[in-house]
Amino acid sequence: MSCEGNGMSDERIGEALIKEVIEEELKDVSSEEVPPLTPLAVDVKTEQEKKMVTQLAKMIRIVGDKVQGDKEFQDCIDGVARAPGCRWERFKQVADKVFEQGISWENIAVLFYVAGRLAVRMVEAHLPQTVREILTWTVEFFRNNLLGWIREHGGWINSFSDLAVAHVRSVSSMTFQSYGLIIIFIAGLTLGSVITWRLTRQH
Hints:
This is Apoptosis regulator BAX-like. By secondary structure, the protein is mainly alpha-helical.
């Protein structure tokens, strides 16, 4: 049962999530050049959708921490930022790399995170206008290539447990910081369960 059947829109949540992740990454950039992104992606309509987007954005940032240590991915991101000519084609190449092993909740999270990091690179390169293009590209890729899969796999509501498992699986040593991240994930799972329970009770 996807979010669509629960009165929540998988498309709306996905678009709002992309915008949320990009804006969250850009908070770390000290620049007044960042353009507003609101007109380019829809906003959520209910409190439940807002909570889901907020929690998913936190989980995506944690999953994305793995990508930060992947030199090949970082080189791809830098390649898009520095590439002359058609950056859209370069972006698609990065997206294809993310999904070369197929679509999964973890890979979707990685793509959204990569979009956020790419937006940061563009602002640092004094190309803030490109941030809006990145949002547009990511939303377009999401609609054309990922939305159908998300609906077929039960909607965003089903992503919580898989993203949590993906993160726990990647933790090789439990440092103090790791404990904190696990706690955040447990909170995310709890929220996801509560949302699921409430939606089930409504029917």
